[in-house]
Amino acid sequence: MVADANPDASGRTLQEPFFLLPKASDSSFIGAIRQLCQEHQVDVLLPLVTRELEILSAHKQEFLQAGTRIIVSDAEKLHLANDKLQLMQKLHQHGIAVAPFYTANTAEEIATCAYALGYPHKKVCIKPALSNGSRGMRILDAQAGSFEAFFEQKPGNTHASLESIMGLFGSRELPAMLVMEYLPGEEYTVDALLDNGEPLLILPRKRIAMNNGISVAGVFENNEEIINYAAQVFRCMQLHGPNGLQVKRGEDGHFYLLEINPRLQGSTTTAMGMGINLPVLAVQQAMGMNIKPLIPEPRWGLRFVRYYEDAWFKR
Fold first, then answer.
1. Is 49 a residue whose pLDDT tops 70?
2. How far is CA 225 from CA 179, 188, 194, 233, in A?
3. Average pLDDT in the 290-302 region?
4. How does the average pLDDT of the chain come out, rounded?
5. pTM to 2 decimal places
6. Angle formed at CA 174 by CA 172 and CA 176, multiple of 5 degrees
7. What's the first-to-final CA gap in the chain, in angstroms?
8. Domains of the chain
9. Helix (H, G, I), strand (E, B), or coil: what is residue 23?
């Protein structure tokens, strides 16, 4: 059974029946899902959308009593993981290395923080503390908007000058913004399966090519520094089930956290090339199975490319 708030979701072609849901912000969201689970005797519910996680987590005991297990971490841990500012503060307080960062609520404060981090000689990253899918993320770059950048950068590039951001924000009060040192090195996505914070599986993959922030080509690497760092982060956060994070190499050569995704990530399916089906493992874990013997040895060095595929349906 598949359900989505988008009537044209591609997932509707993968499994029948398909049900149209209200959005997570709708007051009828939980009731609609509860009714579907009861009518179809759903054993396990696997949410994939960040905005659905906390509300489903808040009701997971209620669903469990009715016979449906929801694969989701506790609500307070989810909130902390999804709040990029609180996340960085917690990791720093627990002695886990993070890139230098500040918080800002106005354009003037962003400028002050940016200069403290070395702008305009260095690039600086800004993003809302609460956002997903790279929404609101910009790289402050003094060269953005230059004649050369006009011809070299594609439309939709995330680079912007501090002056353009100041003009855009003006005197508005902003949501909490994370202002962080820009990490210039290679970027990795990490998929993981956790047992109340303890990693059962950690899979780093280098992002070779991206399209609008989505990895479209990469390679799985047995990078011990990233694996050990990710394990530290996950143990500190005490998340459960399928989770992911992104790290990037800083100027000093070390990797630092960009964000946590406390759910299955969109590109998690790439691990199936190694025979590792993380969604199935997550369901088996939720059903109380011992999954350690079921996890294949990763085929490190496996490369992948992703591409679009057509789907057809009538509604």
1. yes
2. 25, 12, 18, 12
3. 93
4. 92
5. 0.90
6. 160
7. 16
8. 2-72 (3.40.50.20), 100-181 (3.30.1490.20), 184-305 (3.30.470.20)
9. coil
